[in-house]
């Protein structure tokens, strides 16, 4: 049987849902389909049902068909449409960077609440799409924000995101695991990072669309060394001449271990839970 073309809004919606049903339940498939059509052919999602027989142009049909092929393979919607709305801003995302998560928004808002109105230098280590650095630049206009990543492709995308959101961030190519020597000789007041922290053994608990499409470089750490990035960050922070406050997104299984890396250096640490009551953030503050 030949599949119908997505020649009306409702046809396009039904075709998208049917393509997603093998991968998601009906409610999630429906939600993804609405968002997909809104982003792909620039319609308000209510129009799918209030104007179901509205024709879809040949150009939009082609866009929809190409997108459905990618969605059917389990590729995340954000990569298919190329953007995500995050904290009232639009970020471009590609398979070179992680898709920003709600937990990261909680981290950003914690930092912004603590530091509102302060004229400070902030360093974001492992910036990916740039979402943390760019959001902090917007929420803390008196701050100067720098951001690093090992991936040059990620840095290029982050720079694009900063430009399109009219935020000033200085991006630096750096591998925190191997050297901090190429970081600028600036006295940072705050270091923030959402580094790779998922152990290899946790892969079995993850959805296939994450495992097969999001960058493993930004996700995983060895089972035998789950805190490798936090160790590198604590070593760097401990080497700075003046005390620095550090904010981290963490693996919920290693909250106390992550905090200890900083407490042994003399920092006062706080482990913060997210809205799901999981230990997902750490703040390390210099002792008074």
Layout: helices, strands, pairs:
Blueprint lengths: L8 H12 L5 H16 L5 H4 L7 H15 L4 H5 L1 E4 L2 E4 L9 H14 L5 E5 L5 H9 L4 E6 L2 H13 L4 E5 L16 E4 L4 E2 L8 H4 L8 E2 L6 H12 L5 E5 L5 H9 L3 E7 L5 E8 L2
Parallel strand pairs: 3-4, 3-6, 4-5, 6-9, 7-8
Antiparallel strand pairs: 1-2, 9-11, 10-11
Helix pairs in contact: 1-2, 1-4, 2-4, 6-7
CATH architectural grouping of the largest domain: 3-Layer(aba) Sandwich
Look up the CATH topology of the largest domain: Rossmann fold
Uncertain segments: none
Question: What portion of residues belong to β-strands?
Answer: 15-25%
The whole-number mean of residue pLDDT values reads 92
Number of helical stretches of at least 4 residues: 11
Tell me the structural class.
alpha/beta
Task: Jot down its keywords.
single chain; 288 residues; alpha/beta; Rossmann fold; 2 domains; 7-stranded mixed sheet; two-stranded antiparallel ribbon; 39% helix; 18% strand
Can you tell me about this structure?
- This protein is α/β, with parallel strands linked by helices and 288 residues long.
- It has two domains: 9-73; 95-286, Vaccinia Virus protein VP39 (Rossmann fold, 3-Layer(aba) Sandwich), CATH 3.40.50.
- Helix content is 39%, strand content 18%.
- The chain has eleven helices and eleven strands.
- It has helices at residues 9-20, 26-41, 47-50, 58-72, 77-81, 102-115, 131-139, 152-164, 208-211, 228-239, 255-263, and strands at 83-86, 89-92, 121-125, 144-149, 169-173, 190-193, 198-199, 220-221, 245-249, 267-273, 279-286.
- The strands form three sheets. A seven-stranded mixed sheet has the order 5-4-3-6-9-11-10, with helices on both faces.
- Strand 7 (198-199), helix 9 and strand 8 form a beta-alpha-beta unit.
- Helix 1 packs across helix 2 and helix 2 packs antiparallel against helix 4.
- It is elongated.
């Amino acid at each position: 049987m030949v599949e119908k073309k997505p020649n009306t809004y409702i046809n396009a919606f039904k075709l998208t849902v049917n393509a997603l049903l093998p991968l998601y339940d009906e409610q999630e498939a429906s939600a993804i389909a609405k968002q997909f059509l809104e982003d792909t052919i620039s319609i308000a999602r209510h129009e799918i049902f209030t104007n179901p027989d509205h024709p879809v142009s040949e150009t939009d049909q082609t866009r929809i068909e190409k997108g459905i092929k990618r969605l059917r393979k389990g590729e995340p919607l954000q990569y298919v449409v190329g953007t995500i709305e995050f904290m009232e801003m639009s970020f471009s995302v590609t398979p070179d960077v992680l898709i920003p998560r709600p937990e990261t928004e909680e981290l950003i808002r914690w930092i912004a609440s603590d530091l509102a109105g302060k004229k400070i230098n902030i360093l974001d280590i492992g910036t990916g799409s740039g979402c943390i650095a760019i959001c902090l630049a917007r929420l803390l206009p008196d701050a100067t924000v720098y951001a690093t990543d090992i991936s040059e492709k990620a840095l290029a995308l982050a720079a694009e995101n900063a430009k399109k959101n009219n935020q000033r961030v200085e991006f630096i190519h750096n591998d925190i695991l191997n050297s901090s020597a190429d970081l600028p000789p600036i006295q940072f007041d705050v270091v923030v990072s959402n580094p790779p922290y998922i152990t290899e053994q946790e892969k079995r608990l993850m959805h296939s669309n994450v495992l097969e499409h999001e960058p493993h470089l930004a996700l995983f750490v060895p089972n035998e060394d789950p805190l490798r990035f936090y160790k590198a960050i604590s070593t760097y922070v401990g080497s700075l001449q003046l005390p620095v406050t550090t904010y981290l997104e963490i693996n919920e299984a290693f909250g106390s271990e992550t905090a200890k890396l900083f407490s042994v250096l003399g920092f006062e640490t706080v482990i913060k839970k997210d809205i799901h009551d999981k230990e997902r953030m750490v703040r390390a503050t210099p002792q008074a």
